[in-house]
Amino acid sequence: MTACGLDFGTSNTTLGVRDGDAFRLLALDGVRTTLPTAVFFDFEADAVTIGQAAVDSYVSGVEGRLMRSIKSMLGTDLIDADTALRKGRISFRAVIGTFLDTVKTRAEAAHGAPLTDVVVGRPVHFVDGDPAGDAAAEETLGAIARAAGFREVSFQFEPIAAALDYEQQVPGEELALIADIGGGTSDFSVVRIGPERRGRPDRSGDILANDGIRVGGTDFDRDLSLATAMPELGHGSAMKRAGLLAPRSIYFDLATWSKINFLYTNKAMAELERFRRDSAVPDNIERLIGIVEHRQGHALAMAVERAKIALSDSDETRLAIDWGDGELALPVDVAGLNRATGALAGRIGDRIRSCLADAGVTPDRIDAVFLTGGSTLLPQVRAAILAEAPGARVVEGNIFGSVGLGLTVEAQRRYG
Fold it and tell me: I need a surface site. Which of 285, 324, 367, 375 has the fewest CB within 10 A?
């Protein structure tokens, strides 16, 4: 019987256990401890794969249905909606269940023992400004985890988990600002940490504030896509009827990971055909139709994501758009990324200021800023965070592993 910590992320998932006096993440994807949160329903082999194999199957052209960013369904009406497969339909709740079932099976194989109790990470807010939706999201995820075979399921805020991981390495007491910027949410905590505090049974007095916002890496992908790729497909273009522009909702869905599959229906294709007939730039709409017809929506989203990542350490890159019957390679630069996503970075900075205010501390009192989550690699995001505590020491966490390790620390405290 073993307790574990599960970081079910929008983009990546990890699971950790205690190993002697240390905490470690288990291999979930071959030898890799970081598992892409992706599910692929392979129509050719009538099989289901998860992780990198799911992404690779889709990229290689295997006929099927890819689903990513499935965590973002929690707290929305989409969780009980369903999507078509080759044979029948499946609910998004069941998709998450399939993923977590496989994660637990792989983790138990890697650990060599059953995993019975789990502390699951959760954002401070699954849903902004909706306490009922937030509670429903946690309840849904808990029910799915129990259905996967966990006996005891409890939750911890993801930035608090990251703080518990950071605390394992600090030599003295600190007041830390924890910034966890993931694929779907940005979460922050102001926490007192230190060697003498680690063993305390009650740490509530050490947590000065928690806050978060539903802004993450996939939102940066979406806004970059809307600003660069989507105009080449007709976004913002004129219709034949004077004063009308192309309907934004189609492009928003194509640029949003969790909504791409909703375009792969006969009803959506019929709407696109009407759209083409009414458009003043039908050639661009032909490109849009080609992407949907050839089911290249996720491939386009991946290309945008790669361009975003490339701009983390270079000034310019190229974004490939393949609509099946043709291809474009668009130049994209850092200035364009910053223009497209500046409002998102600004919202992250605003929420940190709110968190510090809730904690009752001024920026000069923060000793260290602990960074974790893949989106902290974006220069614009990092700058927005560090601007709120300019005198603090910057500590780089395990980008994809700190939350999972901290949840494992918490699991040992709760279940032992």
Answer: 324
d(CA 136, CA 76): 9
Of the pLDDT bands very low, low, confident and very high (cuts 50, 70, 90), residue 413 is very high
Cα angle 39-41-45, degrees, rounded to a multiple of 5: 135
Give tens-digit pLDDT for 246-298.
999 999 999 999 899 889 889 999 999 999 999 999 999 999 999 999 999 99
Q: In angstroms, how far apart are the furthest CA atoms of the chain? A: 71
Q: What is the pLDDT of residue 36?
A: 97
Cross-strand pairs, 14: 7
Please name which of 8, 1, 10, 6 lies closest in space to residue 375, comparing C-alpha atoms.
10
Those residues whose C-beta lies under 8 Å from the C-beta of residue 71, and which sit 6 or more positions away, are 8, 9, 10, 37, 96, 183, 184
pLDDT at position 1 over 80: no
Domains of the chain: 2-171+398-415 (3.30.420.40)
Phi and psi torsions of 72, nearest 5°: -65, -10
What CA–CA distance (Å, rounded) separates 291 from 21?
52
